[in-house]
Amino acid sequence: MNTILHRFSVAGMALVTALGAGNAFAYGAGDLFTHFGVAKVSPKSDNGHFDGLNMDVDVKDDTGFAFTLGYRFLDKWGVELLAAEPFEHDINLNGNEMASTKHLPPTLTLQYYPLGGTQSRVQPYIGAGVNYTHFSDEDLDGGSLDLDDSWGAAGQLGVDLLIDDHWSMNAAAWYIDIDSDATAEVGGQSYDTTVHIDPWVVMGGIGYRF
After folding, report:
1. Number of structural domains the chain divides into
2. Which of 48, 52, 62, 77 has the smallest CB count inside 10 Å?
């Protein structure tokens, strides 16, 4: 019993010490940080329609490794760049898996931290910015597919749960406007449409402040 009480006392003292070290958690101006973890890209439904082929386009979800790099130039304001390994999406045409593509979605946002510069362990933020999406390795059964690169607006919500002076837990979500002009070539004929991907990107992971 004494051993158990001793362990609880040590744990309690450690917790009090951590909670008392408020200045260590005053994240703000001058901070350079990164987040890294797993992100899921979930396109909206009803992504487009090839009129000449009479085919509906349905772009499926994908999950992969993602990371960010950010800088707080003021206590409440910063910028962050989202990057990732290439995501690969299966594409259904009229419900049949007939195509696929890879894409890279670098996204730059200007962020506002309402609790920036304070000793709060919870640091929520919102952001808005721009996305550039590069498509590659398009494939279509029985033909060829080409997706043009896309520029679009992006919005962001996120929160850091601070662990210590350097480490944090992070959760973030982006809504990205991705519209690509697409050309499918089948049987020597070309068919054009605009594919509206417009995904939610949801990421969970850890953060590190340098």
Report:
1. 1
2. 52
